[in-house]
Amino acid sequence: MWAQVGGTETFDRLVRAFYREVRQDPVLAPMYPDADWEGAIWRLRAFLEQYWGGPTSYSEERGHPRLRMRHAPFAVTPDARDRWLRHMHGALDEVALPPMHDAAFREYVERAALAMVNRFE
Question: Which domain of life, per UniProt (predicted)?
Answer without folding.
Answer: Bacteria
